[in-house]
Amino acid sequence: MPFGSSSPDHNRIEQQRKGLRILFIIVAILILIGLLNVYSSTLYMNVEAGDNPYGYFIKQSVYLVLGSVFFQIMRKNKPELWGKLSGILSIGTIVLLLLVFVAGRTVNGATRWIALGPISIQPSEIAKLPAILWAARYLAVKMDVGKKITVFAEIHAMFQQSKNGKSSFVTQFLSYFKPLFMPLLMALLVIKQPDMGTAVMILTFPAMMYILAGMPFLEIIYAGTLSIGAFLILALTSAYRKARLVVLWDPFSRASDLGYQTVQSLIAVGSGGILGQGAGQGFSKFFYLPEQHTDFAFAVFCQEWGLIGALFLLFLFIGFLYIGLRLASQVNNTYRMLLISGLTLLIGTQAFINMAMVIGCFPVTGIPLPFISYGGTSLVINLMAVGLIVGAVEYSMKEEEQKQRIILNDINY
Q1: Which of 183, 293, 297, 355 has its CA 20 to 30 A from that of 46?
Q2: How far apart are CA 100 and CA 268, in angstroms?
Q3: Is 40 exposed, middle or buried (0-12, 13-18, 19+ CB in 10 A)?
Q4: Distance between CA 174 and CA 154 in Å, rounded?
Q5: Angle CA 173–334–5, to nearest 5
Q6: Which residues cross the membrane (predicted)?
């Protein structure tokens, strides 16, 4: 290699370093915006309740410190370790999800939280992480041995083999779809809380990994069609979920009851105009907009920072998604690629769904806006996800650099 030239591996490492720097900046800005938004959206609520005006801001700051500790733990350990522990982590999460039914705290008709003294944890938020770890580990095993990733073709082959008496269909099914086993089990428990939105999230990203793994395009169309059908069946067979679809179509026809939340959200977003009403000046948080600090935190942000602020926030999440997926394409093994892709999609997709919900383009669900909505469990899990992404990239960089040093030493020798 001529003196002064760069190898493709060296260029890739430099691109990864640059990508990580940008990712850190994006996450830091999102966290700062989130803290300011939590302070603004809860100040009056705390004063009215006779509590510490900075109560929610302090709690979110404490969760940020805790999340930062977990970020470093996830980052400093080899990503394959977390894949190996995915079974234990999944079982532990399932125990927590079962504990919700026994000792859970009910808020707004849903039992999703476990109180631990002054804090509460939400096991359904925790479940998103082990679901992706589990799926990435077992799907990577299939890809690394050259197994073609299909769904419908494989099920058809299973039927044929079971007809011929070669193997049990159930045994083949459980073996082949092992990457989805734990996510499906956790999703079913979350649906019972009830929390269909989070349950769909728990199952969606492991399922999306099949697409990343090379699932045929025609099968993707089939799977998408079946998923939409299943969603509609679940929605239409529940009076509560059916009402949410009706409200989505025309929230103003039910503005005094079922559509109240969506209507108030649209008013908050629209009244922000181009430049917003000013930091801390939005009026919808004065008990007009329910869940203004959690599910509808984006509406408060839009009212105070306007269209410009909303577009800036959208740009940050698009940037996160782009950088994360780009980093996934640059790592040196299948498991890490799937892990980074799944976690990036987890954060990015939830952000887009929450924003769509706030502006009335998606049914009202319990999906928070990552880093912006108040919620300790959500913030900690998102920071752990970023820690896993960063750790996977950094370990890949270290291995590439070690390989380059070995090659260089051999050349010099």
Answers
A1: 355
A2: 34
A3: buried
A4: 12
A5: 165
A6: 20-39, 54-73, 85-103, 173-191, 198-214, 220-237, 258-276, 296-325, 337-359, 371-395
Residue 8's pLDDT is what?
65
Token pair of 22 as six digits: 């940008």
Beta-bridge partner residues of 119: 116
Structure tokens at 123: 């096991």
Residue 349 burial (CB count, 10 A): 18
H, E, C per residue of the chain: CCCCCCCHHHHHHHHHHHHHHHHHHHHHHHHHHHHHHHHHHHHHHHHHHCCCCCHHHHHHHHHHHHHHHHHHHHHHCCHHHHHHCHHHHHHHHHHHHHHHHHHEEEECCEEEEEEECCEEECHHHHCHHHHHHHHHHHHHHHHHCCCCCCCHHHHHHHHHHHHCCCCCHHHHHHHHCHHHHHHHHHHHHHHCCCCHHHHHHHHHHHHHHHHHCCCCHHHHHHHHHHHHHHHHHHHHCCHHHHHHHHHHHCHHHHCCCCCHHHHHHHHHHHHCCCCCCCCCCCCCCCCCCCCCCCCCHHHHHHHHHHHHHHHHHHHHHHHHHHHHHHHHHHCCCHHHHHHHHHHHHHHHHHHHHHHHHHCCCCCCCCCCCCCCCCCHHHHHHHHHHHHHHHHHHHHHHHHHHHHHHHHHHHHHC
Give, to the nearest 10 degrees, the angle between helix 8-49 and helix 376-412. Answer: 160
Single-letter code of the amino acid located at 286? F
Q: What are the tokens at 219?
A: 């099968």
Residue from 352, 349, 350, 325 nearest 339 by CA: 325
Using 50 as the pLDDT threshold, list the residues of the chain that sit under it: 1-5
**How many Cα atoms sit within 13 Å of 280 on the Cβ side?**
6
Closest by CA to 128, choosing from 192, 68, 204, is 204
Query: What distance lies between CA 401 and its chain's CA centroid?
Result: 31
User: CB neighbours of 153 closer than 8 A, spacing ≥ 6?
Assistant: 216, 219
Query: Which two three-digit tokens encode residue 76?
Result: 């400093």
- Predicted pLDDT at 183: 94
Looking up tokens 């679809």 gives: 245
Yes or no: say if 41 and 300 are a contact pair by the CB < 8 Å rule.
yes
Which is nearest to 390 in space by CA: 133, 72, 131, 89? 72
Within 10 angstroms of residue 219's Cβ, the number of other Cβ atoms is 17
Is residue 194 within 8 A of residue 175, CB to CB? The reply is: no
At residue 315, the pLDDT reads: 97
